């Protein structure tokens, strides 16, 4: 059975890992662009989290208002989408918390 390394194809001779790559490749992969100041990132994170809450609330209300007008088949599956706004809000708030507590973290 082939290993994942065998399936990737042949390696150039002498290159065994990222540390052996030519310098210009490593620089291109780790180069960063000019980033926002930490305070602006925190404001942006919380603004996006609040926007997520507002848009999820509006979408949930529109979904409830539209459910009587949906065909029976779609109306029956509408309850599967009740947790979607909760998950979206959780992701938005966790991202904002990461940016707030660790502004240099790229995940936030």
List the helices and strands and how they pair.
Blueprint: H1 4-7, H2 23-30, H3 38-66, H4 72-77, H5 84-101
Helix pairs in contact: 3-5
Describe the protein:
This protein has 108 residues and is mainly alpha-helical. It has one domain. 60% of the residues lie in helices and 0% in strands. The chain contains five helices and no strands. It has helices at residues 4-7, 23-30, 38-66, 72-77, 84-101. The mean pLDDT is 76.
Described by strand count, sense and barrel closure, the largest sheet is: none
The secondary-structure class comes to mainly alpha
Rg over CA atoms: 23 Å
Individual helix count: 5
What is the number of independent domains? 1
Give the fraction of residues assigned to helices: 55-70%
Number of strands: 0
What's the mean pLDDT score?
76
Give the SSE string. Answer: HHHHH
Which overall shape is indicated by the principal axes computed on the Cα atoms? Answer: elongated
In terms of per-residue confidence, which ranges show pLDDT below 50 for 5 or more consecutive residues?
none
Percent strand equals under 5%
Features:
single chain, 5 helices, 108 residues, mainly alpha
Give a quick summary of the entry.
The protein is mostly helical and 108 residues long. It contains five helices and no strands.
């Amino acid at each position: 059975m082939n290993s994942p390394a065998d399936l990737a194809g042949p390696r150039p001779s002498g290159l065994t890992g990222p540390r052996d790559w030519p310098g210009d490749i490593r620089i291109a992969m780790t180069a960063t662009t000019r980033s926002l100041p930490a305070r602006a990132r925190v404001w942006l994170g919380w603004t996006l989290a609040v926007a997520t809450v507002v848009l999820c609330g509006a979408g949930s209300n529109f979904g409830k208002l539209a459910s009587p007008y949906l065909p029976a088949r779609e109306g029956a599956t509408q309850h599967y989408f009740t947790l979607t706004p909760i998950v979206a809000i959780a992701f938005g708030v966790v991202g904002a918390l990461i940016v707030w507590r660790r502004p240099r973290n790229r995940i936030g």
